[in-house]
Amino acid sequence: MTNPNHLPNPLSSMGLTRRQLLKATVGGMSALTLLSLAGCQPVAPSSAPAAAGEAPAAAVPSTLTIGYDLDIIKLDPGIQQAGVDWPAAALVFNRLVEYDNTMMDPVPGLAESWTVSDDGLTYTFQLRQGAKFHSGREVTAEDVAYTFTRNFEIGSQGRFVGYMLSIDTFEATGPYEFVIHLKQQDVTFFPNLAVMSASIVDKETINQVDTHPIGSGPYEFVEWVPGERVVYRKFAGYWNQEQLAQWPDEIVTIPIPEVQTRIANLQSGQVDIATSIPAEFFEQISSDPNLQLLGQEVSASYLCLIFSNERPPFQDNKLLRQAISHAIDKEAILQNVFFGSGESQCNLIPSNHWAYSELDCPTRDLDEARRLLAESGFDTATKITFRTFTGQQFGVPVAEVIQNNLTEIGLNVEIEPLEWAFYVEDAWVGRNFEMTLAWYGREIDPDGLFSSVLRKDQGNNPMRYFNQEVEDLFDKGKATADREERKKIYEEIMNIAILDDTALVKLKTMEIMWAANKKVEGFTLMPKGYPNFNDWKWVG
Amino acid sequence: MQQYILRRLIQMAFVLFLFSTVVFTVLRLVPGDPVAAQLGLEAGQEAYDQLRHEMGLDKPIYVQYMIWLGEISRGDFGTSWRSHQTAISLIQKRFPATIWLTLSAMTIGLLLSVPLGIVSGVRPRSALAHFATFFSLVGIALPSFWLGLMLLLTLSVSLRWLPPSGYISPLVDPVMGLKFLAMPSVTLGIGLAAPLTRFIRSGMLDVMNADYIRTARAKGLIDRLVIFRHALKNAMLSVVTIFGVLLGSLLGGSIITESVFNWPGIGTLLLQAIQQRDYGIVQGVVLFISLIFMTINLLVDLTYAYIDPRIRYQ
Known about the structure:
The complex is a heterodimer of chains A (540) and B (314). Chain A is α+β, with helices and mostly antiparallel strands. Chain A contains 15 helices and 20 strands. Chain A has helices at residues 18-38, 86-92, 141-154, 160-163, 241-244, 259-267, 282-286, 318-327, 330-336, 366-376, 395-408, 420-429, 446-454, 468-478, 483-500; strands spanning 63-68, 97-98, 107-108, 111-116, 122-127, 167-174, 177-182, 219-225, 229-234, 250-255, 273-274, 291-294, 301-307, 383-389, 412-418, 435-441, 504-509, 514-517, 520-521, 537-538. In chain A, helix 8 runs antiparallel to helix 10 and helix 14 packs antiparallel against helix 15. Chain A is globular and about 70 Å long. With 314 residues, chain B is mainly α. Chain B contains 13 helices and no strands. Chain B starts with a helix and ends in a 7-residue tail after the last helix. At the A-B interface, helix 1, helix 6 and helix 12 of A face helix 2, helix 3, helix 5, helix 7 and helix 12 of B.
């Protein structure tokens, strides 16, 4: 080969022509590519075809596929914290009792029956015989005792201890009998036996609980491919065969963070359920004859504007907080940001809850707001920083509506949007804010719904709100069994903390909505937004 | 030549080390606590402290750095705090999907841009040239997010021709594999073809006026030979550079397109890891991506020698 420019060919020093080198490079790269491509595994949602040549099975295994907005975080129920982990806990494990749709009146789980002593301090559980772990071993009261001991050892890294503060002692009094003694009467204790962290674990396989958990629930854990899917397979040895017969052979959850993509997957049948549907899609879904919205009987989630009691300008300035509560146009937030879904009344208890009572909520009244503002002595030239979070579609729009409202009464508000992880670290845990948005998803019992929000130094009280009167009322409410009596107590708490002190302004109750095709029947979400895996039917 | 490659490899190792240090430090300076990201809103202070201790985040940064260097020297590029899987195993699982997407997007991009670029460079006043200009303008301006969503809504929701998202290797199931590939690779391919068309066009325009082209024509060479043997090869020098950059960024994962189509590639792996402040995975993936970039850069430089024999590496 002659070189037209009579320059030495740099490649000839390697004994190669340029063409040979290029061929070698391309060939090598192709080979490498093919090698790595050959190693791929299919991750197609529910559409992975049967291997070629396989004889058609008598029945194709049925699969329920759920498109989740997030990947799961933890498999070990002892340290699970987040709602996305609920399917892993609910499907793989049983608890002594299980949630009903309202999360307030538990139904039998591993415990077939139970009795409560007259003083309300001793709970005796009779376990069902023949319930088995996926390893084949029978579940006994010893396993329950082991789970409780383990959870107390895990301590603050899990949620169990926080739920079980009233427990004095517990013991397995027989192979199928488990007894719990309380320190004091606590009406909130019993439903909490159905929480994720109260899942009964298998002592013998505990070393693999965070990678391949073994429980006694209706589905066995098959695999978790992070970011791609989690697969559960029906456990043939499950104690409740009648229920099991109504459910599909497999349940697969796939993380699909992009909401449009999640809904497109539902519409085209790639997934059967899509989680966390924002309000703007409700109409589109309910008008589709093949789809249905899955909602809650009652919601334990609410959105608030909260004020810091540790720094100016809201510290010790109740009138300023009240002025703001009169200036905010909650209806505008409801209509413009949430497309009219939900309710904006000021009680932290939703209106369809047994403990709800109608309060004399502050209405939007700009004159009253200006009067309170003038009386508060706050210098309106001072800038108020309003920290909010991104990542949730409503975080910034809600803040913008409020900013506009407050400008109308002469306040100078600057919005500071924070990325979620930084919001949690700095604004929430670090309590570094003047006012901020707070989205609570709590327990449905009125105590669980807001005691950690309004009680001294609690985790959900970054405002550091404190009022001794409120503390006493919470204690009283927890020790009162009669619902009418309790209702009055919580009404009083609302009157003090929300109407008078204006510790926070509730903006709206947050409904959590999922959507499904018609292959599932009777599927509902519980107050915390978790799906009720106990009470539904597969009709695919 | 060998010496040149060797020198470049040594440089690469050094840059990689520097880069890893920067990534390590920056990650720890970025606001947003991995402990908070894991525990969420409702855990108590005690839980935070305990988890921070378990993750080794209560140690000073330089101690954390030494520990990390030690791990890297043992070939351990980090482990997920969430799933306890290693960065390497996660990359191994995700990379094939990214390679498939890159290959098909590149194919689409080249099939569109090379003919369009050549024609509009050689015949700048033709209708096709005007179309090419229009196409590349629109292609550059179109956000891939929007294009992807539109494809998704029309092709899979309305027409039901293609599955909206998911992945299976075309080697395992060619039909389904290609169906899954179609929309993401068209989305990326158009985004790729647009700038490439412009580069090829301007490269060709420059070259077509050069003396040696006139000489070639004067010698009586037919048009095809003039264009492909003399013009295109010389016009390609700048195109190869931009092609290398685009290829590198594709192999590093296309975060937006992968998110829209839920493509289980490197891009979504990195995005999720960043959102969850999963330092181990972020560090591993970023190192991997920079390694890819540097390798492609080296290959591009070597390709220059093929395209332009005047370039020598000594």
